[in-house]
Design goal:
binds 6-O-phosphono-beta-D-glucopyranose; single chain; 22% strand; Rossmann fold; ten-stranded mixed β-sheet; alpha/beta; 16 helices; disordered N terminus; six-stranded parallel β-sheet; 2 domains
């Protein structure tokens, strides 16, 4: 299968396994709706939502409607019914060739349509689904498979999943989703770095003191206690989202924007991550778990109360100091941190530049360094913090002033959800924003250098819900998290 052109999308079937699940209702189907409503899906298509338990299509659409409504501006609701005509609920209690026979017949009736199989189910089910799709003759050169994380729980299980999927689909047909790569500001990072002479020239160890990547969430584990307690923040967030952000910040300029050029460069970053040995771990990694506290105005329970257990060592917060052992980033610390139940929801990437080499201003003891802040959420913007003179006679007094580029204000348009961009890329066959097998493998190898000694070498620190969590011990005095 070759990458299709930027504009053309062939008619398609989107078959969503777990079609009545939370992710499908919250993100995937609203994303299809919005792309369709914007006129980008003007070709024939049908979305087949596979459910193990739900049989009642009217009830399913009733449950889905509020999710779509909340994703669109007020007043656009009257088009939802015509979108619903494109959605069919298909009840398949157990996957088998026999049970997919009528689905198969429907799909084969349109031999020229592309077939996108979206697996929004636990990865334990991937093998069985792919095997049945293949034996039912549903996998042809126009087929694709989309995989939602987590892809396994360690390197071995991830390899096992990949091997089984590769029996049915070629690597060119596999789209491993990391929804962070679909976020507008994350893509804008590519433009910021590679379309602006200004930044790329100073994007290296000579000019940058440290990089901080934060994904702070105010929510707790919500209804996912079972999944989360087996996973924890390291695997839920760092192994995928934070490492992908790190790759985009640190990679060399790819020679083109094709999927393999970009992914080759990301892979080199992952392969250059300094592997932790046992004794280094406790000086570079902190893991925490939220206890009771107040987030905003709300009093919230501890993690253990949320998951209804008396004990659990699962971390809901992790902070790491990471090094990339290559020419560009020699000895520049990258601080990664993520946590649940933190003071506020925000994600950003802060590039802390080095201070000026020599201070000519004798009135000022220390000149603060420049900072570039790339804010991913909730408000998407880029901020360059630079020093300015405070107006007035007599001497120099400085103040850091931000040059701000606020996307919403600057472009006056709705910012599409990450899934909207990703879905269009899948339909076009563009894999640039999806993880390749070797990237995933490399990320797992590095994560295992941490998880291997996790429980023996690091202590679980409790932090109050509504705080910024622990994590200061691994940082130099001068580079404390710039918590907002
Ligand atoms: C998911 C994690 O991948 O990302 C969740 O499983 C997390 O635990 C979510 O809450 C965060 O995504 P976003 O887009 O809300 O920052």
């Amino acid at each position: 299968m070759t990458e299709t052109s930027n504009t053309y999308i062939a008619p398609f079937f989107a078959v969503i396994f777990g079609g009545d699940g939370d992710l499908s209702k919250r993100k995937i189907l609203p994303a299809f709706y919005n792309r369709w409503d914007d006129g980008q899906l003007d070709m024939p298509f049908q979305i087949l939502c596979i459910s193990r338990s739900q049989e009642n299509a009217t009830q399913f659409k009733k449950e889905l409607r509020p999710f779509i409504e909340s994703s669109i501006p007020e007043g656009g609701e009257d088009r939802i019914d015509s979108f619903f005509e494109r959605i069919e609920l298909v009840h398949i209690p157990e996957i088998s060739e026999k049970n997919v026979a009528s689905l198969s017949k429907k799909i084969k009736a349109e031999p020229d349509w592309q077939r996108t199989f979206y697996l929004s189910v636990p990865s334990a089910a991937f093998n069985e689904i792919c095997t049945v799709l293949k034996s039912s003759g549903l996998v042809n050169e126009n087929s694709k498979v989309v995989l939602e994380k987590p892809l396994g729980h360690n390197l071995a299980s991830s390899n096992e999943i990949n091997t089984s999927i590769l029996k049915a689909f070629g690597e060119r047909q596999i789209f491993r989703i990391d929804h962070y790569l679909g976020k507008e500001t994350v893509q804008n990072l590519m433009v910021l770095r590679f379309a602006n002479h200004l930044f790329e020239r100073s994007w290296n160890a000579e000019n940058i003191d440290n990089v901080q990547i934060t994904v702070a969430e105010s929510l707790g584990v919500e209804k996912r206690a079972d999944y989360y307690d087996k996973t924890g923040a390291l695997l839920d967030m760092v192994q995928n989202h934070l490492l992908q952000l790190l790759c985009l910040v640190a990679m060399e300029p790819p020679s083109t924007l094709t999927a393999d050029s970009v992914r080759n460069e990301k892979l080199k970053v992952l392969e250059s991550l300094r592997v932790f040995n046992k004794s280094e771990l406790k000086n570079n990694v902190i893991r925490g778990q939220y206890s009771r506290g107040t987030v905003g105005e709300e009093k919230v329970k501890s993690y253990l109360e949320d998951i209804r257990q008396f004990e659990s060592e699962t971390e809901t917060f992790v902070a790491l100091r990471v090094f990339i052992d290559n020419w560009r980033w020699k000895d520049v610390p990258f601080y990664l941190r993520t946590g649940k139940r933190m003071k506020r929801r925000y994600s950003d990437i802060v590039i802390n530049f080095k201070p000026v080499r020599h201070n000519i201003f004798s009135d000022v003891e220390k000149i603060p360094a420049n900072r570039l802040i790339i804010r991913l959420q909730p408000d998407e913007r880029i901020e360059l913090v630079q020093l300015s003179k405070i107006p007035g006679p007599g001497g120099y007094r400085f103040k850091p002033i931000s040059l701000k580029l606020d996307f919403v204000d600057s472009f006056k348009q709705r910012m599409p959800e990450a899934y909207e961009r990703l879905i269009i890329d899948i339909l076009r066959g563009n894999q640039t924003l999806f993880m390749r097998y070797d990237e995933l493998e490399s990320a797992w190898k590095w994560i295992e250098s941490i998880s291997r000694y996790w429980h023996d070498e690091t202590r679980l620190v409790l932090y109050d819900s509504g705080s910024w969590g622990p994590g200061y011990e691994i940082m130099d005095e001068s580079t404390k998290w710039q918590a907002k």
